[in-house]
Amino acid sequence: MSALHFQRSAYPLIGILLILGIWQGYTSLSGISPLVLPSPLEIASVSVTRYDLLLHETWPTLVETLLGFCLALAIGIPLAVCVANSRLLNLILYPILVATQSVPKVAIAPIILVWFGLGMSSKLALAFLVAFFPVVVDTATGLQATPSGLLELAHALRASPRQVFFKVQVPAALPFIFAGAKVAITLAVIGAVIGEFVGSVSGLGNLVLSANSQLDGPLAWAALIWLSGLGIVLFSVVALAERLMMPWEGARQH
Amino acid sequence: MIKSAVSRSGTPPALTGIETTAGQQPVQPPFGHFKDVHKTFTRAGQAPLAAIDMVSFDLHIGKFISLLGPSGCGKTTFLRIAAGLIPKTSGIVQINGIDVDAPQPDFGIAFQQPNLMPWRTVLRNVLFPLEITGGARGEAAERATNLLALVGLSGFENSYPAQLSGGMQQRVALCRALVHRPKLLLMDEPFGALDELTRMEMQDLLLDIRAKTNATVMLVTHSISEAVYLSDAVAVFSNRPATIADFIAVDLPYPRLPEMRYQPEFTELEHRAGRALGITK
Fold this sequence. Notes:
The structure holds two protein chains of two kinds. By secondary structure, chain A is mainly alpha-helical. Chain A has one domain (about 35-245): Orthogonal Bundle (MetI-like fold), CATH 1.10.3720. Chain A is about 85% helix and about 0% strand. Chain A has helices spanning about 5-30, 40-50, 50-85, 85-100, 105-115, 120-145, 150-155, 160-200, 205-215, 215-245, 245-250. In chain A, helix 3 (about 50-85) packs antiparallel against helix 4 (about 85-100), helix 5 crosses helix 8 (about 160-200) and helix 9 (about 205-215) runs antiparallel to helix 10. The longest helix of chain A has about 40 residues, at about 160-200. The two termini of chain A are about 15 Å apart. The relative contact order of chain A is 0.13. By secondary structure, chain B is α/β, with parallel strands linked by helices. Chain B folds into two domains: about 1-105 and about 180-280, P-loop containing nucleotide triphosphate hydrolases (Rossmann fold); about 120-180, no CATH class. Chain B has helices spanning about 75-80, 120-125, 130-135, 140-150, 165-180, 195-215, 225-230, 265-275; strands at about 30-40, 50-60, 65-70, 90-95, 100, 105-110, 185-190, 215-220, 235, 240-250. A ten-stranded mixed beta sheet of chain B has the order 5-4-1-2-10-9-3-8-7-6, with helices on both faces. In chain B, a hairpin with a 2-residue loop joins strand 4 (about 90-95) and strand 5. In chain B, helix 7 (about 225-230) packs across helix 8 (about 265-275).
């Protein structure tokens, strides 16, 4: 590949390796207890040896996150369509949306737990709650930001409101929708973990808590690393979907 | 400023041999008939703004007319009224026998900006009007491809607009305006955003396409030489609120050639337009 390509992949890697090296050096030289700060090698070895447990605990968190995210899209996008196309609904709903968003999700988690119990539905609800807002706001913004020239063109061609919506407004809003979805998917992981922290029987968040209480520092850290990995993978999947659904964005650079 | 050429609400100037004076009834009504067209914008909390005072002229089939005037004079407003995009306040706007109060299916329109959809390929942008009217069948793709070839964009059918230069994008927009075989092509400063050389190239291209499609064209411009070079007639608009300051028949033969720009007849017509605009004495 080109020198630029090499720089793009090599330099971040150098940064990460540098941090890991300092971390490894510090833990081995200072003799700090692995309970307080395990070394990167210890964490890596636990990630491999307790692979089964970590994978087993990943599934609930993954399912909670994905369901919460999908629910946020399924409810958020239609709601954004209403808000974007009706001034009345905009006036009624927007203040409520902003008000709900300003409620700290961590503070509402115990209440959600009372409503939905210790099982999956409470985590799903929290993942939905945090993922919902960026989806609505970005989608509504995108639908309202249709270039006026394109709307005028559609008007000149006597396009029906339905055609304007599906052939002009929605494709024009796609970059915004994906921007919202990328924020939402990372937030959904956080929502699911908050739910697991407040009360749960499974999941990576639950594993972090239980490993910590059993003074198993390396396992707690391994669970944390897996959680980050889960977030990165899910984000990449959304980013990939974006590239596949919007091939014209990639075409720009050629 | 010369206003004597056309009285404010008098007889519309005729564009061809067909006279509309008393005693000589036209053989057929003109393709486009504009009489005493007036437009005042009213907005809540603001003083009403008269954009067009009184504009009358006739446009005959197959002819190319330019609306020339200073920025903000109401010529674009007039084009938009003719296109049915915005309502007139009063007057008569008849095109092809229809009182225009909404966009018509047999109009093609090109704007100052190409207004291409970034998510559609060049070919699918050109086909967009037919997709809206439900005529995007197999034959349509062939027609769109032929139009693209006519403007020199063969091989770019599957490119995205972002991959094209401004001039190329404007050519795609021109194909899109023509794909449904419009009887009237309306253009709002379509080459205004292009550099001078590209602009002159596009003018020749437009004349070429017009000769091949026989479309009637109404073009808004603020370039005197562009108006004279392209048109059968130039309607010179006054400052806002617009009236017709002069109506200039351009008796230069088609096909127009770049060399004609330097002929005395050409510069004389430019000079007359300049006088009507109040630029020269």
